[in-house]
Amino acid sequence: MHVIQPSEVSDELRALWQHAYKRLISHRGGPELYNTIRRDGDDDDLLAHVVASGALWTIGDDRALLGFALVRDEVVECVFVDHQRRREHVATELLKSLVAGENPPKDGYALPGDRGMKSLYESFGWKARLLTMRGE
To answer: Taking the domains of the chain in order of start, what are their residue ranges?
Structure first.
């Protein structure tokens, strides 16, 4: 696992980023989380912006990029794993590496109903501290 540098933005990463975006905005709470993620960038260059800020961490094997995590201000803002590689503990390994790093995250975002992400955080001993409710 390593933080991506601007020179390392590949077509493979761009494709995975676009797939993550499409999945994110289709979920309840996804558009709001996306607005949080793009807080200081615009849609056209958001990937370049988060890479330049040193906030995008990737995990892969010798064959392919498996997933990524966006971590800023000690918060895991998103974790995404290639759909074909889910259930292989890729996200667990990614979070394990982040937690063992110099500036470990202390919080993580999870969408409503995303039991998998909540379970991942709970497996590290993290507890829910805030739930935002909205009337429509």
So the answer is: 2-123
Rounded to two decimals, what is the model's pTM?
A: 0.91
Q: How many angstroms separate the CA atoms of 22 and 7, rounded?
A: 24
Q: Would you say 37 and 78 are in contact if contact means Cβ atoms under 8 Å apart?
A: yes
Q: Provide CATH code, domain 2-123.
A: 3.40.630.30
DSSP 60-109: E-SS-EEEEEEEETTEEEEEEE-GGGTTSSHHHHHHHHHHTSSS---EE-
Q: Give the Cβ contact number of residue 8 at 10 Å.
A: 12
pLDDT by residue, tens only, the chain of 136 residues: 788 888 889 999 999 999 999 999 999 999 999 999 988 766 678 999 899 999 999 999 989 999 999 999 999 999 999 988 888 999 999 999 999 999 999 999 999 989 999 999 999 999 998 888 888 7
- Asked if 79 and 67 touch (Cβ cutoff 8 Å), the reply is yes
